[in-house]
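Purpose: get a first structural picture of the assembly so the mutagenesis plan has something to point at.
Setup: two entries, given in the order below. No constraints added.
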Amino acid sequence: MATLSDIGVAAAINILSAFAFFLAFAILRIQPVNDRVYFPKWYLKGLRCSPLANGAFVSQFVNLDFRSYARFLNWMPAALQMPEPELIDHAGLDSAVYLRIYLLGLKIFVPIAFLAFTIMVPVNWTNNTLEHSGLTFSDIDKLSISNIPNGSLRFWTHLVMAYAFTFWTCYVLKREYEIVASMRLHFLASEQRRPDQFTVLVKNVPPDPDESISELVEHFFLVNHPEHYLSHQVVYNANKLSELVNEKKKIQNWLDYYQNKYERNPSKRPLLKTGFLGLWGESVDAVDFYTAKTERLSRDISLEREKITSNPKSIMAAAFVSFKTRWGAAVCAQTQQCRNPTIWLTEWAPEPRDVYWENLSIPFVFLTIRRLIVAVAFFFLTFFFVIPIAIVQSLANIESIEKALPFLKPIIEVKVIKSFIQGFLPGIALKIFLLFLPTILMIMSKFEGFISLSALERRSASRYYFFQFINVFLGSIITGTAFQQLNNFIHQSTNEIPKTIGASIPMKATFFITYIMVDGWAGVAAEILRLKPLIIYHLKNFFLVKTEKDREEAMDPGTIGFNTGEPQIQLYFLLGLVYAIVTPILLPFIIVFFALAYVVFRHQIINVYNQEYESAAAYWPDVHLRIIVALIVSQLLLMGLLSTKEAASSTPLLITLPVLTIWFHRFCKGRYEPAFVRNPLQEAMMKDTLERAREPNLNLKGFLQNAYIHPVFRSADDDKIHVAMEEWEEEPSLIATKRRSKRSTPLSSKHGGSSFSSPEANKERSKP
Amino acid sequence: MATLSDIGVAAAINILSAFAFFLAFAILRIQPVNDRVYFPKWYLKGLRCSPLANGAFVSQFVNLDFRSYARFLNWMPAALQMPEPELIDHAGLDSAVYLRIYLLGLKIFVPIAFLAFTIMVPVNWTNNTLEHSGLTFSDIDKLSISNIPNGSLRFWTHLVMAYAFTFWTCYVLKREYEIVASMRLHFLASEQRRPDQFTVLVKNVPPDPDESISELVEHFFLVNHPEHYLSHQVVYNANKLSELVNEKKKIQNWLDYYQNKYERNPSKRPLLKTGFLGLWGESVDAVDFYTAKTERLSRDISLEREKITSNPKSIMAAAFVSFKTRWGAAVCAQTQQCRNPTIWLTEWAPEPRDVYWENLSIPFVFLTIRRLIVAVAFFFLTFFFVIPIAIVQSLANIESIEKALPFLKPIIEVKVIKSFIQGFLPGIALKIFLLFLPTILMIMSKFEGFISLSALERRSASRYYFFQFINVFLGSIITGTAFQQLNNFIHQSTNEIPKTIGASIPMKATFFITYIMVDGWAGVAAEILRLKPLIIYHLKNFFLVKTEKDREEAMDPGTIGFNTGEPQIQLYFLLGLVYAIVTPILLPFIIVFFALAYVVFRHQIINVYNQEYESAAAYWPDVHLRIIVALIVSQLLLMGLLSTKEAASSTPLLITLPVLTIWFHRFCKGRYEPAFVRNPLQEAMMKDTLERAREPNLNLKGFLQNAYIHPVFRSADDDKIHVAMEEWEEEPSLIATKRRSKRSTPLSSKHGGSSFSSPEANKERSKP
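Result (structure tokens, whole complex):
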């Protein structure tokens, strides 16, 4: 058990390292050469231009204004100054609400800590159970519930506190849910006209022998939404094309690299080996090699594009259908279209940049099968992830390395190296796995078939939280792998589980305090330094960048990373709620984390992170749910702990807490969740009416027609789209011909307005 | 343990008693005097008239055609003859699909029994574990899994069978779900125009200081559904009025009784004591007394009606809103109207006769609180229901009776009476409780706030099933009260629970066989005799009936009783699935139950039961879910049983079964459940278009205006409604005046068409 002074030393180390990170950041950020690393958001918004362009040569790269070094912490108040409405405008509602999660932590834990320290700590402290017990103990334990003798009446304090904390948390949660819901509604209402307000995504369009997907969609919606249907946009299966485009980009990078190299040293043409990783094989001229490769790829790309637009099979069984009014779209998104509920599925179209195009045409049956596979895979990942790592570790020990690569033996046998390998290799396998975990979870979500980036991230976040709950939280409290725990739990009685965990909670307090300081304090401080983007940017800058546009591309602003960031915060909520009653000394550490993280991430959101999509805080129900789960876990564990303390009379009182909490959750779900899922008709009608009054001659078709084109087409077809757009207004919107008898050739897409916006039609039209 | 011959004797007794019931039924049903007891459905349909009207006097009451006695079982083929489409037409889809549950039982268990007897029974039989064990055993045990030695490889047979049974059950379930869903959709599509197709129930209309509920509803829907809104109907709080009407009916019965008595014996005017239960107090002339009472009640009723229609406070915050098209109603029912998801809640209006009027105006917050209260109450009811019964039992023993009523002592001390009381009284308390259980559960559902009778019955059914599962199924396997079980389970490890239950399952087979024969065979046969309605009908007939209309009212056709009948069937599904692997000898008994019940209930549905409402088989998802639950329970228990049999290698194979079953359930839920919850727009549009083409001049407003009037008003206002209906067509549908400044007096409801259909308006209009 660590004493208070041990904790003090650890705190000092972590505070110092956090301070060091801040200092390094303060120095690096005011160097003009790093400007694009630390302020990319402003570049993306076009509000800042390169400081390299003017001024003396040296001051282009290094800041020589020494006064600015003195104010090295002034970014903190600056980060706090931007008011919330401006922040929403600047970085989107997602980011602004994300910051509110940290604030929520402060709102919950500051009053709880105050109460705990004024009431509960004195109650704990004024016992001397531990002194009489003969066990070793520290001052921290004297402050905790461990110091209260078994069966003492003082446990009533903890019981009352448990109620107080639960009610306070629920109150804050409810208020926050209310605020976020109204922020979301206000954001959606006050926002500019956006294509997704008018558009619905239709999935699982059934195949039809007589009509193409495009015709079918048009006819279906003209018949079933006759007064509201405006146009539609079919979805092309451009996965291969975008692969090719990505490859071309990579090759182009290499070409740039060698061209730069050649320009700097024109005397020698750079050579390249064509074999594996450029290590062996025939030597060729690198510039020529890559030029040829780029050209070949360009040809492939245009061929592939041709194929996509001419082949009806590359049209996926999904479409974006636009309506004349928001009301029409709201109606279509919320209703069932067809008597078979697995075809003609409609839902709100995600923002165009939020669409995850690859998943748009997975049939219903496959979706359910994929879900089953992912559920099983995730179960094994969570409970058995230790097994493959153990195998890797057993393979990566010294004996097996010596066996496999005998020539390394003399080197390995050196004592320093040997101990290094022994101490380091097993850990590295685990570390690599944990590093790749978010990616693995993301791949799982993608496989599961979500159709927007925001949904992918939300799903990954809940999986990551579950993984952390099992493997970090429970794994630290009850040592042993997750699978061993699972096995224990199955063989333990239901009321033994909270007892086992609850009883070992007070003992792990110091461990978690250290964890919070390392992961929460120093980790958050390291986030602001952005070491990896800094290095990569300078590498790219040196090797690849030729034009200002290249430099733009070399920036890597990153995103908030909801799928990893939010589960981390949730772990702190869990720790705070669990330890609030048991070992209140943990609370100040958590409060410091929330405060620090709030400032740091506010700064990052304002200056660094790029907004990939805007889901208008659609993740809040998840956040709310997880805090509720943490609350219930804390209540169950407290019940387990108290029952080992022979305070059995408290059980009936404690068991009502989770019941009330679950009820509170259901109440909140009914009261606020619809704001995050559905779109009220009243709202839609109000905006429609306003818009009709303000802009009676609005050309909505023109506004919507190219909103939902696959980004691969968008980048290349800018000019062609213009041609198509001009033709729009001349076309009358007529109901196309009805179903005909069998026709074997695919339609030439002359029927109905919608097909004009397809690349196919664009191509035809742009021909002379 | 009962031997095969014991079972044979029990079977003989039950078959004989079933046969006796059938015989009694066969004789009673062909007596003309009982015609209204055994064929009320035909009277209700107006297809049969009283046999008392013509023929010789004796043959009016007794059937003298002795040939008809010979064919006493001919109702069975007759019951089976009516084809399903005709049955749907005759008794509604609910009843027809309800019968399919019995058929489903046959479809599942006949092939399973066949497989079990050809493969598993020989495997079990050819061991002699039991003979060597030295335990007492019966032939039944020799057929069961108990006869297989621990750790035997023969368990693989059971494992394969478990898979086969699961797949077969799932296959049948899926096919049935598909058929029922398409039956429902076909029924809804082919049905006549019904008011609920066009109508949506709006709950939680927010209060408004400026406008009455009626105006508010009209304005809201005129603004938000401008092209589809037709009219609306406010809901009056007529609970007190209907109480008064019911009381008047009761008093009227007494009045009739005494008038009849007086007519039969005009020499003596019947007297009545006014005190408690007519046992003491002043004697008065009964006819005069009740005549005065009826008159007073009539006055009260008209006063109350006046009050309701003139007082705006008696208008509840709910309304039935009708639309011009089915499409408009489908849209409104499926969408969220307002940004606050707890007001302006819309849902499909239930059928007019299905509406449960009392619950129409419970605010959202109260609903969630009520739900919590009912959940907690139901938990205690299920697990602690034994406690109050035990208290009653302890009060109702001989000593306490003697203490309370000492003068009874000599009677009680008689040996026969004493043993009767001792043996009978404790049982009677339990029996009374179980008799009232469905009523208690129904009251709970009503308190919870469901707004249609069908929903009330569905909810009661699931509660009743849960209660039976805990107290009949588990309670019989592990003897002890539910609370003791709960306590055991909490203190047992998670994998011990299926083991404990699983291990005692084979031992309880004979008990359940007896249970099936008593409850399933003889009970179902008793159902057809309708002893209680028979007696009550003849009593009423003798004392109250004067006119043909009175006789009509004396009939008590009853209903299917979904809330008690369906859970009973589900218990048999559970028993069948659980014992299919363990003791297959139980299966034939279950098959006989399903076959017998199918015939009996088909007969009852055709000839007896009245259809209270038509929910178009909305209960099928519940039925499906409960069979799935039974399947999963059977799999878990088999796992527990096999693990005690040292067939541990089967666990991983068995654990995939529940996973697959749950996945199957989720697949079915996604695939078929929407057909039971939502209404596809395509369907609605199709019917609208057809109707427009067929009846272009349809007066929909006239059709809809009085559909959703509280039945209390309906019965009395028949003539007034006619007046109102005529005025309808003259009224133009104009958009009412917009919101005005403060106005303190309630509106006189002259604005908009909707208010004309209110009783208030009717009354005003019917005045000279």
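Confidence is low (pLDDT under 50) at residues 717-768 of chain B.
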